[in-house]
Amino acid sequence: MRFIALLFAACLLMVTFGTAQAADTPAVAGKAAVHKPAAKPAARTARAVTSLKPTLVAPATDILHEHFAVTVSGNVTNPEGLPLPGATIWVTSKRDVLAVTNADGEFTLTLPTNAPIVLSCGYAGFEDQLIPLRQPRRQNLVSVNLVPVAAASRR
To answer: Which InterPro entries match (predicted)?
Structure first.
């Protein structure tokens, strides 16, 4: 940065003293000093203005909240309390399957951050159920009781 400032100052001095020296130069013998008017600067050409597109940048650190991985565990049952093996749990907005229940209807999944998220749970013949996690803790235990489709439509 200093180099640029020094270079600018040197150029400014050369321009200033260079024109002053030319004006003070005595006339050559036999010729009168002729002062030429400065040439008009070239007309500026219009440049195309490029618009900048806003870019969303995630902050490197969130100073208001502590971020940590979250474990969600639980079980999925039918209205009679029987486990539903093979039920799936996914992120509602992405439809990416995060976990599938085992033979006892239990599941465990890990989320990378404690940001609020809505999970969905589903099983063939049953209505999907939303599992909102507004302020997830490090360990979260949920119990999901799915309702059959026929019973859900009668409500």
So the answer is: CarboxyPept-like_regulatory
Length of the chain: 155
Go through the domains of the chain in sequence order and give each one's CATH number: 70-154 (2.60.40.1120)
**Tens-digit pLDDT string for the chain (155 aa):** 566 766 667 766 666 666 544 444 555 555 555 566 666 666 666 666 666 676 766 555 555 667 788 899 999 999 999 999 999 999 988 888 899 999 999 999 998 888 888 999 999 999 999 999 988 888 999 999 999 997 555 55
Angle at 129 between CA 123 and CA 132, to 5 degrees: 135
pTM exceeds 0.90, yes or no: no
Q: Rounded distance, CA 140 to CA 75, Å?
A: 12
